[in-house]
């Protein structure tokens, strides 16, 4: 068993090498696999992903247990987001990938009169996927599956705060092709920067704005395409004629799912003044009913926050709000992490 932050690639390389060699080895393996498998038909790629889907379905209980242990989710959150969301995405790919990726006849410009034009979808090569800690299984598999179905190979780096070490490799073990096409590398920001130095064909990053800016700056020096999904400040608007029960339920779900650690979670509530007091009273009443517990047998609604620095940030926001006149209607303000 390896420590959670040990850096290595999978499958294991029998040749000893220093940590500085890990990015080079990972990309070399991925590029070799890409050269072998890039000509697989879309149907063949989907067949491999079907094996992955069946494996996730069969091993869902152990995956849920591992995620709960690693990041502190309750069972409900782990089941809905990590398992059901992932299976739903794999189903969508099965039903739509062939149609979306097949050659498409497009209009030919007059300068090429007498010719036919086709829009072809071709693989890029080896893509780098860097994921956050809030949905360690879902974010990994959905990104990997999208890259695979479009014919690419992957170097994947999970967050050092939730590496779930060995879990992604475990489910990819259902297919020797997937095992070779996906290389998993563990480490922090320095490892992420070292992986970018290997010049991936494209970078997919999900995480914070400041880190996204650093990745984009480094990638721009080599003109590497970058796709970023960064944090936001998502508002929910409640008008006076909205269903009160449904609005309160939506606010609770959007604000508390995954302990609030979601890029699309409700972070601001804008409520029409005429119903504000009634809405807040109802929201507080329903919030009291939420069961907060890590793990559990499926009866909890909310788990714990994953990392101390995020917990401290929430505490700081609450303290700042109270300083400027907010009223605390539910719960208490805990001490910051020592």
Your description of this structure?
The structure is a single chain. This protein is an alpha/beta fold. Strand 3, helix 5 (about 140-150) and strand 4 (about 155) form a beta-alpha-beta unit. Helix 2 (about 40-60) packs antiparallel against helix 4 and helix 3 packs across helix 4 (about 75-100). It is about 45% helix and about 10% strand. The protein has two domains: about 20-105 and about 120-230, Aldehyde Dehydrogenase, Chain A, domain 1, CATH 3.40.605.10; about 235-305, Aldehyde Dehydrogenase, Chain A, domain 2. The longest helix is centred in the first third of the chain and has 27 residues, at about 75-100.
List keywords for this structure.
338 residues; alpha/beta; Aldehyde Dehydrogenase, Chain A, domain 1; Aldehyde Dehydrogenase, Chain A, domain 2; 2 domains; 5-stranded parallel beta sheet; two-stranded antiparallel ribbon; 12 helices; 47% helix; disordered N terminus
């Amino acid at each position: 068993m390896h420590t959670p932050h040990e850096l290595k690639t999978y499958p294991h390389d029998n040749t000893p090498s220093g940590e500085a060699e890990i990015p080079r080895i990972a990309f070399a393996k991925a590029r070799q696999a890409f050269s072998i498998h890039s000509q697989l038909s879309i149907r063949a790629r989907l067949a491999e992903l079907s094996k992955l889907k069946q494996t996730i379905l069969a091993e869902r209980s152990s995956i849920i247990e591992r995620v709960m242990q690693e990041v502190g989710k309750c069972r409900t959150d782990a089941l809905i987001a990590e398992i059901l969301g992932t299976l739903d995405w794999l189903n969508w790919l099965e039903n739509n990938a062939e149609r979306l990726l097949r050659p498409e006849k497009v209009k030919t410009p007059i300068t090429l009169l007498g010719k036919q034009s086709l829009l072809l979808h071709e693989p890029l090569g080896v893509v780098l996927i860097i994921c956050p800690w809030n949905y360690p299984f879902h974010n990994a598999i959905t990104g990997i599956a999208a890259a695979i179905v479009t014919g690419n190979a992957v170097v994947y780096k999970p967050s050092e705060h939730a590496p779930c070490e060995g879990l992604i490799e475990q489910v990819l073990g259902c297919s020797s092709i997937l095992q070779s096409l996906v290389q998993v590398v563990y480490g922090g920001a320095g490892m992420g920067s070292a992986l970018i130095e290997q010049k991936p064909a494209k970078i997919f990053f999900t995480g914070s704005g400041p880190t996204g800016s650093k990745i984009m700056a480094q990638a721009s020096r080599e003109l590497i395409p970058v796709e970023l999904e960064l944090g936001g400040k998502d508002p929910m608007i409640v008008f006076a004629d909205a269903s009160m029960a449904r609005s309160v339920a939506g606010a609770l779900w959007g604000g508390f799912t995954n302990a609030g650690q979601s890029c699309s979670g409700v972070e601001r509530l804008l409520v029409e003044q005429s119903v504000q007091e009634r809405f807040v009273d109802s929201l507080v009443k329903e919030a009291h009913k939420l069961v907060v517990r890590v793990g559990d047998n499926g009866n909890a609604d909310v788990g714990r926050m994953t990392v101390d620095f995020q917990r401290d940030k929430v505490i700081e926001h609450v303290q700042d709000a109270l300083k400027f006149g907010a009223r605390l209607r539910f719960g208490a303000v805990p001490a910051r992490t020592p």
